[in-house]
Amino acid sequence: MGLMKRMSLIFNAKANKVLDRAEDPRETLDYSYTKQLELLQKVRRGVADVATSRKRLELQATQLQQQADKFDGQARTALAQGREDLAREALTRKSALSQQIADLQTQHASLLAEEEKLTLASQRLQAKVDAFRTKKETIKATYTAAEAQTKIGEAFSGISEEMGDVGLAIQRAEDKTQTMQARAGAIDELLASGALNDPTSSPSDDIQRELDRMSSSNDVELQLAALKGEIAGAPAAPAIESGAGATETPAPAVSVVKEPAEAKPEEPA
Question: Rounded to 5 degrees, what angle do the CA atoms 30, 31, 35 make?
Answer without folding.
Answer: 115
